[in-house]
Each structure stands twice: as structure tokens, then as C-alpha cells.
Amino acid sequence: MDCYDAAEALSRPEIAQLQIGRLRRSLAQAAKSPFYARRFAEAGFDPESVHSLDDVGRIPFTTKQDLRDSYPDGMLALPHSEMVRMHASSGTTGTPTVIYHTQKDLDWWASLMARCMYMVGLRRTDVFQNMSGYGLFTGGLGIHYGAEKLGCLTIPAGAGNSHRQIKLLTDFKVTGIHIIPSYALYLHSIFAEIGLDPRDLPLRIALVGAEPYTEEARGRLQELYGIKAYNSYGLSEMNGPGVAFECQEQNGMHVWEDAYLAEIVDPATGEPVAEGELGELVMTTLGREGMPVIRYRTRDMTRFLPGQCPCGRAHRRIDRLHGRCDDMLIIKGVNIFPMQIERVLMAMPEVGQDYQIVLERDGYIDNIRVRVEIRDEFFVEDMRQLGALQKRIAARLRDEILVTPKVELVERNSLPKTEGKASRVVDKRESGA
Predict the structure, then answer these.
(1) What pTM does this model have?
(2) CA distance 315 to 301
(3) Beta strand pairing status for 425-427 and 176-179?
(4) Residue pair 138/236 in contact by the 8 Å Cβ criterion
(5) For the domain bounded by 329-427, which CATH number is listed?
(6) In this protein, which residues make up the domain named AMP-dependent synthetase/ligase (predicted)?
(7) 128-146: per-residue pLDDT in tens?
């Protein structure tokens, strides 16, 4: 096993021993903040009472609302003068969630990100183009500093401006990129417009994340670009990118357990679920000194993958995200995640790169309509053929989500496009639009 650092090769007993020591220190550090001093006292919880990982369930949870209520600096565990950077959530309404970092925190984050990149095969000889937004969003700077830490020639392209992205990819012989999956599919259409095939470039590795997407969408992306695309998981409350990452096996994302304590709980009860069972991911920082975050309820639904990864790393793997607790749709009494719909659509060769889920209300009944872009060669004038395709898509979706949606077939590039995260769900139930 070729590793970036020694922590990557820790055994399960070594990880457990390391985690309890770092958890105790993180709890003591967190207790220095106004928020956790109050939260622990209200819960009657003494950080000194934690002696093993079995005690974790007694520690109070932290929620996104807690971070908002502590805005702007109620969760700081060190003086404001020790902080060198802050990041904030990308939401446009309400109070943002703010995370602060000391220089030590940033250095460790960069090392974790470099570890991720090394694991998938990037080396200091690579040219890396970061096609993610910079600024308050953590994805841009998090990946950027990891790439520089690894020693790559790093191009801070930022988001958008697709023609410039393609020029940079071509002129500088880029071999690795960081890109949002929906934008990667969109960018391919720009390649086609200007008559270039990205498979002719030296590009070989893509780091993808920032939004949920399916295995079928990953397969399509890899085919279109002739590359390997590796899933990543991160959230600003835990630093940003680099929390968990796929290895070259592409079978689950390794959580760096020397830096984070991960749990999977029942979102309704907060109790642990059985190994391999789907639940809500709960995360604790194990080394951040400026603003520790303890037992944070991410609202992301996933599971621990059982067994040892063939790559040899003992850090536990989480499955790709199955959606969010708060993204779940309830239609006619059935729980539906948008990812289920994408999984079906991306497995069908007739379907193009984009789709949209529209929620509508007919009287007191909620309905779901799926608008699907069809590839040019299948968008024919024969209405019988289109009707048959429409019925086939509806039937496959019904088999997956247990509700029969209305399916609307549309031409390529007719749905709204974005160079950022795709907006897949349009809820018209309240507006009546």
C-alpha cells in the first residue's frame, strides 16, 4: 500500500486508541467555547467522564441551528486573535454558519487533502486545475492548498467561464481536475460545441463532489472524458473537502479517522444503527483547535460499508450519499430521494445529461413530474416511438420509487443550465405556479 503519510496505514486497534485520546482532548478544548460550556452544563455532561468510545452516545449533539445561533463567534475555543481564516455556508438567506481556523488547523486540513489526492494517484508531477468556486465556499481553497501541499502545479481557475476552462485544460496539459459533477456534464456540451473531444487531452483524474450524484452519472462522466472520477465527501463544519475520499478501488469513501470520529445514527431517535444500515452521518472533529465541533448532525444519509477495503487501508468507508434527511420527498405517502430518480435515468442510454423533478399539487393530491432531456438521435418525429420511450421511463421510475410519475421528454439543452450546483427539484405545490 503506497501511502502519503503514516496515519493512512494505521490498523483498527491503532485508530481506536488514537481516537479516544484525541476525542478527550477535543472535548476539553470545546468546553473552552461559550457554546459548549453552556451545552455541556445544560446536559449535565462532564467531558472528563469519557474514557472509551462507548461513552460517545452520552455526548450532546450539535446541529446546524446551533451554529447559526452561535453566530458570529460563540463557538470559538481560542481568542479571536488566534484565528487566521473563516469560512461560511453558501446559503443566501438566513444566518450563515461560520467556521474559524487557526494556522495549525489549516496546515492539518491541507495535509488531509494532500493525502486524499495522493491516494487516487495524483503526484507532484501532475498539473491540477481547480474548477471550484473560491471565497467563503470551502471547496476552492480546501482543494487548492491540498494540491499545493502535494506539490502539483496548481491552476486556480475557479468556477464558470467554460471556454476559458477548456483553454486552460488544453494549453497547460492538465492531468487532474476538481469539478462539480453536474458542471462536468454541462462542460462536455461546450466541448462538443467547439468541436473538441476531452478524451484527446492528457486528463486522467477528476475529483468530484459538492453535490449528490449516482454511480450511473459517474460512469457516464468517466466515459465522456476518458478518466477516473473519484468521489469525495466534505462539509464546511468539518473543514470542507477531505473528510472522506475514495481510494483507487472506487468502492466507498475512507473517513480519515485520525481526524474525525464518524457515527451513523437513526435520524429519528439519534441511536446508533447496525453495521451496514442506512442512517444519518454524525461527525466530530478530533484535532481542530480553533473551533472544535462535537457530534455534528450532518443530515446526510449514508452507511458504513462492512469489511476490509482491498486497498489495505483500515479507515472505515462510508457509502456514497443516499440523500439528506431534509431532502427527502414524500409523495402519496412514499419517501423518495431525488438520487433514486437520477439512478434510473442515468442508466438509460436514451437519456441526455440533464433532468428536472417538478413537484405539483392537484387539489389535495401531490404529484411528481420528471422532465427528461433526450439525446438527439432518440428525439425523433415518430410520436409512437417517443410515447413508448416515455412509458418505459415512467415504468422504470415506478419500479424504483413506487409512485408513477408524469414523464415529459424534452430536447437536449432545453432545461435551465447552470455552471454551479444543479438545481434538480422545483417545488410548485405551495406557489401553484
Answers:
(1) 0.80
(2) 19
(3) unpaired
(4) yes
(5) 3.30.300.30
(6) 88-283
(7) 999 988 888 888 999 999 9
